[in-house]
Each structure stands twice: as structure tokens, then as C-alpha cells.
Amino acid sequence: MTAGVFSYSAVLMGSPILLKLFDDNPTLARHVFQLIKQQENLFTVNRAESEVMSVNHAAGRHPVIVSEAVFALISVAHAVSLLPDSAFNFTIGPIVKRWKIGFQGRAVPPAPEIASLLKLTDPHQVVLNPADRSVFLQQPGMEIDLGAIAKGYIADRVQAFLRQQGVQQALINLGGNVQTLGSPPHEPQGWGIGLKKPFGRDDELLGVLQVQGKSVVTSGIYERYFELDGRCWHHIFDPQTGYPLDNELLSVTVISDRSIDGDIYTTLLFGMGVEQGLAYLADQPDIDAVFVTRDRQIICSSPQHFHFQQLDVDWQLRY
Ligand code: FAD
Ligand code: MG
Ligand code: MG
């Protein structure tokens, strides 16, 4: 391990949070965790009260005025959800709540129920009014869920806060959503970020990504899932069907400057699959990705912004 590293941990947003600094600064760490907590309080849909929940509670009844931060993040989520063939849909809430994957009471819902809940997931039925920062869900029962974007946004907020505090080298991991500042001292090749072996033990890695000042976000089907009838039912849903996305992918990792982009792109690329995803990335010079597939391949898009060191040779690495 790097000399002089100080690690601070917490559990927030239902996720293990890890902060690495190169000064022993518990006060700064406390401020970072407070910032995350404050953001969680705005965005969570896992409690009865938050700004996002107040929008959900008023669905089909009236618009709700929200804070600047919440309006800004909802606006981004809305725009991404309206992209052609987008696998990202921030009105997926009724589906997420019904499946309860990662929570008590998880179950495969009856197909007719999924079909009727899908009618409540049309992002065109969200009315955003920048003039008064209000959000209106037009149908009763509609629910916003920012689970696929909020951690990325919050990781960027933490990075900006640390920079403001004069920190030049740090890492924040919000449970699979990593954002970094600089490189660790005496390690010019950057931060080593482990790529987990899907369904493996916590310490089993396919390899290590080396990045400097970049965000690394992974979405996988092996973190939140349950098994039933020989199938893995995981938490990334196909907005067209209301069932977990079912393709060749086990995970997608995105390397980008902003963690919000990493969070958005992992979901978009998950929906595209490998070949379409690689073609899409060819036009996105600032975004790199690593796809991990069921047939044991690790596929890197042209790695401009990272170096990948393979550790598990049972998997085939290709570019
Ligand atoms: P990503 O792949 O980035 O996103 C998957 C998540 O996005 C799903 O869990 C779902 O919420 C949503 N989603 C699914 N399909 C789609 C789709 N097609 N388009 C758009 N969104 C989709 N977990 C707990 O166990 N307890 C908590 O109290 C809790 N509180 C949280 C509070 C906040 C503010 C946030 C951001 C997350 C919280 N979580 C909590 C975790 C949350 O439930 C999700 O599991 C987590 O955000 C998923 O992150 P990911 O990076 O693993 O997955
Ligand atoms: Mg995420
Ligand atoms: Mg995401």
C-alpha cells in the first residue's frame, strides 16, 4: 500500500463509502461525510422524506418546487432519459420499487403487473419548469429514481469540495463510484483501481485500472441481485420490458473526467451491449470503458485515459 495513506470509511446511501487522503485529517473526512449525507437527504427514495420524494408524493396532483441542485440533476436525468433508444430512464421508480432488488421482499412480479407499472415510466410525462424550478409528474403513481446518476453527481461534489480545501491527492469511493484527485505521492502511474471478478470474492480481481485524476464507475449485475429458477435477477432494468437487462454483459466500467458522466454512461452502455457500445464510444473521445462479458472476455475501448493490468489470466483481454 502507498505510504502515508489515511483511509476513512462510513456507510451512507446503503453503500460502503471510502475516503483516502494523504494527511491525517479526520475533521476533513467528517466534512466530506456530512456533505454526502446532506446530498443523500435531497435525493434518496429509500426514505419517506426527501426533495425527490416530495415530487413523487405529488405525482398526478401538483408540481413541486425543488432546490437548484435537485432541479439541475433531475434536468440532466430527464435529458438522458429522452435520448433515442436510451436504456437510462429516471422514471423507472415504480419498477424498481416493485422488484425490491437489494431490499427485503424482493420477488419476480407477475408479468401483467410489470406491464401496468411500465405505463408509469414515460419520461415525456415529466414537466420541468426552469422559471420556478418546479417538477411535475403527470400521472399518479409515477416515481423518479436517481439511483443510476446521483452517486456520480455526489462524487463530483466531493471532488470539488476537496479541491476547494486545497487537497491535491485523494480518492473517494461511493460503493462502485470512484472519483480521484491527482495521483498518490510517488506513484506517477496513478491510482490503482481494482476491477472485481463478477460473482467472485471481494478480493478477487480481474485486473487493475491505473488512472490519474479520473473517475472510474462500475455497474454490474453481481452486486445487487437474487437468484431464482436458475436466473440472476439484478437491479439494472430494461426500461422497455421492466425486467433486468439481459445481454452478454456482467459489468461495464467507465473512465471519464466527471463521475456523473461515468454513472450515466455505465447505464447507457449496459443497454447497448459490447458491439454497439464500442461503436458509440468511438465518437466519445473523453469516455473510455471496460466491458466484462459472460463468456469471460474483458474488452477495453481505446484506452486513452487509463492503463489496464490484467491479473486473472482465465479471462481473455481484448481491445
Ligand atoms: P447503477 O447501475 O448506477 O444504477 C442502478 C440503479 O439505478 C438501480 O438500483 C435503480 O435504482 C436505478 N435503475 C435501474 N434501472 C435503471 C434504468 N434503466 N435507468 C435509470 N435508472 C435505473 N441502497 C440501500 O440499500 N439503502 C439505502 O438506504 C440507499 N439509499 C440511497 C440513497 C441515494 C441518494 C442513492 C443515490 C442511492 C441509495 N442506495 C441505497 C443505493 C441505490 O438503491 C442503488 O442501488 C444504487 O444507487 C445503485 O448504484 P450502482 O452504481 O450500483 O448502480
Ligand atoms: Mg452508479
Ligand atoms: Mg449508473
Automatic annotation (TrEMBL):
<dbReference type="Pfam" id="PF02424">
    <property type="entry name" value="ApbE"/>
</dbReference>
<keyword id="KW-0460">Magnesium</keyword>
<keyword id="KW-0479">Metal-binding</keyword>
<protein>
    <recommendedName>
        <fullName>FAD:protein FMN transferase</fullName>
        <ecNumber>2.7.1.180</ecNumber>
    </recommendedName>
</protein>
<dbReference type="InterPro" id="IPR024932">
    <property type="entry name" value="ApbE"/>
</dbReference>
<keyword id="KW-0285">Flavoprotein</keyword>
<comment type="similarity">
    <text>Belongs to the ApbE family.</text>
</comment>
<dbReference type="InterPro" id="IPR003374">
    <property type="entry name" value="ApbE-like_sf"/>
</dbReference>
<keyword id="KW-0274">FAD</keyword>
<keyword id="KW-0808">Transferase</keyword>
<dbReference type="GO" id="GO:0016740">
    <property type="term" value="F:transferase activity"/>
</dbReference>
